[in-house]
Amino acid sequence: MLGSKKAGQVSGHTTLVSSDTTIVGDLHFAGNLDIEGLVQGNVIAKPDAPAIVRIVGKGRVEGDIRAPLVVVNGEVKGEVYSAERLELAANARVEGNVFYALLEMSVGAEVNGNLTHIDPPVTEKAKRKRASTPPNKDTAADTAPAGQT
């Protein structure tokens, strides 16, 4: 269900851009960011930090959004880059290209731009798991030189 806790909260504090607030310039953040007002600039999550941005109600962003988790139920005039999960709720309006690893789109949501799937980032945990997993016997036979299987 869109807008539910499924998108999750990330640990850390929540920053609110309230409905009567306008921010002019880029906004860099970590943790939870809820936008009910207007941001005229890019919204950028700190690299390698858990982060979620929600544009809710009459919230509006005039610039690009770059965050692992993004929930839009307002308006975005710019590109959206969501490395993990993007939720477009029924009142979402995006004028720009959307790049996502996982997309959930509700009836009524609108995107005026391209939808482009991207590969999700590989976490350090996944890298360690791959390194510690022995190769599959079938895979090893496929890559062994002829006559050495």
Fold and architecture overview:
The chain is mainly beta and 149 residues long. It has one domain (5-143). Helices cover 11% and strands 42% of the residues. It is built from two helices and 16 strands. Strands 1, 3, 4, 6, 7, 9, 11, 13, 14 and 16 form a ten-stranded parallel beta sheet that branches. Strands 2-5-8-10-12-15 form a six-stranded parallel beta sheet, with no helix packed on it. The protein is globular, with a radius of gyration of 19 Å. The N and C termini lie far apart (50 Å).
Indicate the topology.
Blueprint: E1 14-17, E2 22-24, E3 27-29, E4 31-35, E5 38-40, E6 43-45, E7 51-55, E8 60-61, E9 65-72, E10 75-77, E11 80-88, E12 93-95, E13 98-100, E14 103-105, E15 110-112, E16 115-117, H1 124-132, H2 137-143
Parallel strand pairs: 1-4, 2-5, 3-6, 4-7, 5-8, 6-9, 7-9, 8-10, 9-11, 10-12, 11-13, 11-14, 12-15, 13-16
Family: Belongs to the bactofilin family.
Organism: Parahalioglobus pacificus
Protein name: Cell shape determination protein CcmA
